[in-house]
């Protein structure tokens, strides 16, 4: 970023500041002015390709935030991942050239993959199949819901100048693919409403952008199809940071001048380099190592001192089951992450057990709700 890299400590030092009435008014004025511009024009300005005319100069301080969310298909209120790809438009305008296939632009982007700790054990294995361990863009960290909400609030409150808080916050352009569903999930599952923060001045849905740029005539186009039309590979889909990155990369390719997009097969090589470099982008919200087996930090279920975690665990739900198969599985997971319990609720242990009896029995386990 222009003022500093996008680390937790940098955001935290400024997120508590309140912008002045004048800066809020300036944000409102910019938001109104951008209503006269289409998505292609707004994005081209953010990338430093073509400056907007007749808009407040505040537009030169714009931050673009592209995000994607994932939820458990058996309970869509259980948010499991957040992926963010973001850049500062000031960094883009400082470039001498966008580079072939926009490589120099892509090198200025930051990528974040957040797994929501409370739901990290909920994997989609039937519908919208994704593997959060197969993240390609940025580093993966585990965040509790409260931490994730704080991270997002800080991302949307980036100061124009950290040393001059009176200047207020940068305007934010939000991007996503079929964005409405992601915004709704963040509101319902995390209590995060980007619009309520007052910094969002424009929203770009890449489905709309694709029509504006002549990549499709359809009202809706899937991300996989859009990526294919843009000429690069759609890899490890339905992992939030991968999808957010591919959304932003596709957007860049759609607005990039044709002279910078030779048909030489070089785009995928560019993206491979960007992907590799992004994995060195450290960030500090949450924790990088969390074990889904034992629930402790500092290692993962597949790597605890070079071997899989062998901590003794026991699911009290399964251990008390009348089904032998469930009892045998009791030593494979903790009570708090029992998938069978989340899916089906408590098991009746005899046909005469009342609902009150079940509730009493579950309360004695001393755990939280079904997640």
Fold topology:
Layout: H1 8-12, H2 21-34, H3 39-46, E1 63-72, E2 75-88, H4 89-93, H5 103-106, E3 110-116, E4 139-143, H6 145-155, E5 172-176, H7 179-190, E6 200-205, H8 206-212, H9 223-230, H10 240-255, H11 266-278, H12 316-319, H13 324-328, H14 339-344, H15 355-363
Parallel strand pairs: 1-5, 3-4, 5-6
Antiparallel strand pairs: 1-2, 2-3
- CATH architecture annotation of the largest domain: 2-Layer Sandwich
Give average pLDDT, whole number: 88
Helix content: 25-40%
Shape: elongated
What low-confidence regions span 5 or more consecutive residues with pLDDT below 50? 8-23, 367-371
Query: Count the helices. How many?
Result: 15
CA radius of gyration: 23 Å
- What class do helices, strands and sheet pairing give? alpha/beta
CA distance, first residue to last residue: 37 Å
Order of helices and strands: HHHEEHHEEHEHEHHHHHHHH
Strand order of the largest sheet: 4-3-2-1-5-6
Q: What is the oligomeric state here?
A: single chain
Major sheet attributes: 6 strands, mixed
- Under CATH, the topology of the largest domain can be stated as Nucleotidyltransferase, domain 5
Q: Count the domains.
A: 2
**How many beta-strand elements?**
6
Estimate what percentage of residues fall within beta strands: 5-15%
CATH level-four homologous superfamily name of the largest domain: Ribonuclease H-like superfamily/Ribonuclease H
Q: What would CATH call the class of the largest domain?
A: Alpha Beta
Features:
single chain; alpha/beta; 2 domains; 6 strands; Nucleotidyltransferase, domain 5; 371 residues; elongated; six-stranded mixed beta sheet; disordered C terminus
